[in-house]
Amino acid sequence: MTESALSGMSRASRPSEPKRRPSNRRITQPPTRVPWSVRVRGFVDQHKPKLTRVRRGLYWLLQLAAAGVVVVGLMAAGRLLLSHLETAPGFSTSSIEITGAQQLSRAEIERIAGIAIGKNVFQVTAEQATEKLLAEPWIETATVQRRLPGTYRVQVKERRALALLAAGELWLVGEDGAAFKQLGPGDPGDLPLITGIDLASIEHDRHAAAAILLQVIAFLREYADSGLAKREPISEIHVEADETLSAYLGGDGTYVRLGKSPFRTKLRRLREVFGQLATQRTRAKYVYLDNDRRPDRVTVKLR
Q: How much is the pTM?
């Protein structure tokens, strides 16, 4: 059959081509490769809050570390500077001014405070010297000033001992009624002796013992104001079992029962009694001033 014959054939008479069946096979596209920079950027965007907190933490950690290095450096520099100042000849102590010391000598004040002529002033601060002085029983208050390059000014207020307390050992009693120091060498021993308060009672009730001692100190002050102290010095003050007071006066130890406070009126009557006995050139063995019902009545027994 010729080409013309084939071309002349109708479309319907042409043999039909076989039809293709649809395939169930899925065609997948090859994965697209994401650039590394994009992935990093996405990770950063996703974890940005956490990274921010971490970055802030690292920042403050570095700041703290830097501050620590600075502090350590300053401390090392300070130690070097202090070591230099403590050995520098220009800061040797050249002057020490002391005021208010009577019981303690100048040498004792310097020894207690830890200061001395020629000693470097940076070895003992004013606070250290003050603390050492206040630890001394005789010193009630203390103020120390250090002035560069080499001067100390020390001002102290000493306690004043008014009596001796016989309680196991002998103790100095101050104006505030406190037994502040055990009697030692160099301490005043010619003071009125307080008896009748034992160590056991003090340890049992310190407040009660302090109240009694304050009463004794009040009596000593009133006795000094009465004008009797020089003529009839007190050798002993005894605290009775009922916490009333008695005293031994003068060189012959005249016994005077005082009773309870107030004592001013009683001491005025006692002065009158001693005055009358002096005109008679006699002495009393004892005088009782403790009649509470008849306070104007005085009992006297002559020697």
A: 0.68
